[in-house]
Amino acid sequence: MALVHKLLNGTYILRKCPQPSVASCPFLSTRVAGYCSKSLEKPVATPSKGSSQRNTEETLQGHHQREVALDITSPEEKPEVSFDKAITDEIKDHFRRLKDEIVNHWIGPEGRPLQEVLLEQAKVVWQFRGKEDLDKWIVTSDKTIGGRSEVFLKMGKNNQSALLYGTLSSEAPHDGESGRSGYCAMMSKVPRGSFERKRSYDWSQFNTLYLRVRGDGRPWMVNIREDTDIIQRKNQMYSYFMFTRGGPYWQEVKIPFSKFFFSNQGRIRDAQYQLLLDKISSIGFTLADKVDGPFFLEIDFIGVFTDPAHTEEFAYENSPVLNPRLFK
Amino acid sequence: MSWAQAILLARGLSRGWGGICGAALTGATFSQLPPQSPRGLHCSSATHNSDSSLVPRPPEPLRKPAKALAPHEELFRQAPDGARDKASFVRAVQNFGQHNVHKRGHVDFIYLALRKMKEYGVERDLAVYNMLLDIFPKEVFRPRSVFQKIFIHYPRQQECGIAVLEQMENHGLMPNKETEFLLIQIFGRKSYPMLKFVRMQLWFSRFKNINPFPVPRDLPQDPVDLARLGLRHMEPDLSARVTVYQMPSSKDSIGTADPIEPHIVGIQSPDQQAALARHNPARPIFVEGPFSLWLRNKCVYYHILRADLLPPEEREVEEIPEEWNLYYPMQLDLDYGRSGWDDYQFDINEVEEGPIFAMCMAGAHDQATLAKWIQGLQETNPALAQIPVVFRLAASTGELLASSGLEEPSPPPPEEQEEEEDDPQRQRRGQS
């Protein structure tokens, strides 16, 4: 299944023009979203409601497309479409990656000698130094549930940082059940090995998350997901807050992993458990501070490091009132 | 207890009666019912319309207008002068208690009051929330037997109590002891509102003071004070000095034909002043902006005075005397130096940008205003007279708005703070 996804994705890249009709297939929705973030400015493909909304959306999209047209090759030129070639290329690519993985495993974890990995005290996990780094991220907003927020991800002015910007709108979708709305989010894609096997990050030797960001004074939420195959746990996250100072200076945010609290489906759980760092699947940033208006967040890089001064195991004790079962 | 059961029974009967009547009146909409229709029919039509209310309606006046109003809406209209403040809200709540000795329809009333709170400006008032909770009859909804504890006892009322607490939560209000006593009196210890209360107490106290860049809850109304606050908020250097270069001229003193002088407030730290004095006059410096800054729910715009990054060959490395250096042993060259274990540096080149010399917030974003700021800066920075200053403003407002394609092309008034909803980053890129 995963291979088929990848193949379809590959052919789309070959075609060079995103087809919005793919969005009708529910399996491909994440792929489409990912592709959107790849194509620089294009917002998340969602069915728009209402003619007026569609109008503004179209003007916006048209505007961004014009901006894009400055630095990408125009879609006018005819790319050759060859399905067989795409398939063979994909298969070759996957086998090459499989070979690399086996060889790297022989050398050490992640293809580096064991000693180097063990001695490492600070590691850059995500950086933004080129357009290909943006492919590792997905941006979504409440447009997917019918809201009006917009979010875009692109490279910054000096091409050395990612700029996440857009407009937050807390207007609830008119679907009769949602009472409130208004979020914009950016999350990293789950790393994939050869043949689209899911992989994860192992941060167990680090204890602090490090972000170098520049914001506009809005509070963000940092979400970390553990890698899990249990379907009941797919909505579980560990979150903490990131406050931006605002202003023209870069800001270093250090969040110890012990501060992350446990939530399921967006609700804080009564029974709190520590974030286990050996299998981390993705990280995300959410903005939902109920303040309508434009926002931006520039990210230089995201890393993890060991803070020797930080010895806290877990910041939240469980309350005997809320979960007496843990105290029996 | 017994009267509540009796009421529930009566409700069931009346609904059954309503069903029969509704079947009899096929096709007739309820709003077309004659106003002199019997009371039972009227009540049953009301319950038929909104099945969500478990509690029977209060006897509604028959002169009710045809369009559907929320019940008890008239309590909130009684303020004679139309004043919408805490006093009139409290009066409305008290009136409900006086008119309904039996507290009929109190769930509907509480939901209505929760919706009205924002209008009356009491959504951040803990005493008002406690007063709303006080409407609930005491001791009635407390579960008394084991089975009542297992199954949700009076679910609508509990949901309503949770809704009150949730609105408190959304506005960041910490419930106090009085709330706890009320909840225990109304719903008992083993109930969902009480559970919500315990959770709120636990998590609110944990997250109360985690913002390292706190902003006061009530922002100053005066734009100069707001600009002062915003600049202090952005500047990490505590020794920086805020200067008001121009106070806003009062609008009403002179005729409207006179152009209004916007306020200009700037901030500069001694380090920035020294850096500006050292700046090579051959290289221009730039006034850039406007960039947005959010202070709670208010957006203010600021401009910066900056230079481009020096090319690497022109940078002189500043030697820090060893006794000033916090990382003093880094200079030592000993055998037992640092090994791989001690390398806490990230293996990446951080984004470097040119130095920033000053920041300002002005009432207008045009070049004339900012030129006044530069003039004011020259008094404390004489070196600025020799350095060419380039204005890289995104706001020659007309073209900016036209390019965004969303707003109407009329130029905004000069003292706007919120009109420019456009993304400054986009503007900045468009200019550079």
Summed up:
The complex is a heterodimer of chains A (328) and B (432). Chain A has helices at residues 2-15, 29-38, 51-69, 83-107, 114-119, 131-134; strands spanning 122-127, 137-141, 150-155, 162-168, 184-188, 208-215, 219-226, 236-243, 251-256, 261-264, 267-268, 280-287, 293-305.
Task: Please give a structural write-up.
The complex is a heterodimer of chains A (328) and B (432). Chain A has 328 residues and is α+β, with helices and mostly antiparallel strands. Chain A folds into three domains: 1-17 and 28-44, no CATH class; 91-119, no CATH class; 121-327, Jelly Rolls (Sandwich). Chain A contains six helices and 13 strands. Chain A has helices at residues 2-15, 29-38, 51-69, 83-107, 114-119, 131-134; strands at 122-127, 137-141, 150-155, 162-168, 184-188, 208-215, 219-226, 236-243, 251-256, 261-264, 267-268, 280-287, 293-305. In chain A, the strands form two sheets. Chain A has a seven-stranded antiparallel sheet. In chain A, strand 10 (261-264) and strand 11 (267-268) form a beta hairpin. In chain A, helix 1 (2-15) packs across helix 4 (83-107). Chain A starts with a helix and ends in a 23-residue tail after the last strand. Chain B has 432 residues and is α+β, with helices and mostly antiparallel strands. Chain B folds into two domains: 73-208; 223-403, no CATH class. Helices cover 40% and strands 10% of the residues of chain B. Chain B has helices at 2-24, 39-49, 86-99, 106-120, 126-135, 146-150, 155-170, 177-187, 192-207, 223-234, 270-278, 367-380, 397-404, 424-431, and strands spanning 241-246, 264-268, 285-295, 298-307, 356-362, 389-393. Chain B has a six-stranded mixed sheet with strand order 1-2-5-4-3-6, sandwiched between helices. In chain B, helix 3 runs parallel beside helix 5 (126-135), helix 5 runs antiparallel to helix 7 and helix 7 runs parallel beside helix 9. The longest helix of chain B has 23 residues, at 2-24. Chain B is elongated, with a radius of gyration of 33 Å. Mean pLDDT of chain B is 75; it is low at 16-66, 253-257 and 396-432. Classes of the chains: A alpha+beta (328), B alpha+beta (432). The interface between A and B is large, with 54 and 57 residues.
